[in-house]
Automatic annotation (TrEMBL):
<keyword id="KW-0812">Transmembrane</keyword>
<keyword id="KW-0472">Membrane</keyword>
<dbReference type="InterPro" id="IPR025403">
    <property type="entry name" value="TgpA-like_C"/>
</dbReference>
<feature type="region of interest" description="Disordered">
    <location>
        <begin position="226"/>
        <end position="248"/>
    </location>
</feature>
<feature type="domain" description="Protein-glutamine gamma-glutamyltransferase-like C-terminal">
    <location>
        <begin position="149"/>
        <end position="216"/>
    </location>
</feature>
<dbReference type="Pfam" id="PF13559">
    <property type="entry name" value="DUF4129"/>
</dbReference>
<keyword id="KW-1133">Transmembrane helix</keyword>
<feature type="transmembrane region" description="Helical">
    <location>
        <begin position="81"/>
        <end position="100"/>
    </location>
</feature>
<protein>
    <submittedName>
        <fullName>DUF4129 domain-containing protein</fullName>
    </submittedName>
</protein>
Amino acid sequence: MTGAFGALAHPLAAVVGRALPRSADEPPIGIDRDPAREAAERELSREIYTRHEPGPFRRAFDWVWETVSDLLSRVTLATPGGWLGLLIIVLLVLALLIALRLRLGSVRAAGGTGIPDLLGATTRTAAEHRAEADRHAAAGDWDRAVRERMRALVRSLEERALLDPRPGRTADEAAREAAVPMPSFADRLRAAARTFDDVTYGGRHADAADHRRLDDLERELRAARPVTPTGPTGVGAGSFAAPGGVAR
């Protein structure tokens, strides 16, 4: 400590000494401000004075800590109840975020991947979807029964060539396309699509009445004869009936 002080005192003393009169009969020597400041800065920049200063990381950490502490202090003063009130607000916000996360998770679980694909990636026949629907209905699982019944309905129309097999088709698209060959069922097809979407993606639970309506619709569609589209001249542009007059 004594050595460091002496090292600093030597150039400063020399600078100050120049400003003092050497004797009573000699004129004082003036000191220039800039050279004196530069000499002091050079001396204080030596490692002996800076080796114990905190590094840049520590200075940044101290600044962040002081800023956060000051901010919390201001919030605490502005919050009724001080620190206790602030803690209660933080807990309420956390509870709200947890509840929102759980709610969004349940919606995603109900909707699978969230992609409105009616038939999904698994390829099944209409009969297989009907069997699945009957099995879920017997177990009282109306949500799955409704989904499988709607899939049986659409797959049946595809098997009869009334709908083109197309991956990624939605329930609304299937209802709109099926209404072309089956116009008398248009309203019931749209209602069935809404039920499927509400149960599959909207988080609504189906009941026995929902399944019964889709079951009746699917049975009637299988027995119904499609309308033959006509061209501009009124001549049939194509037929949906198989040889022998049996509807496909």
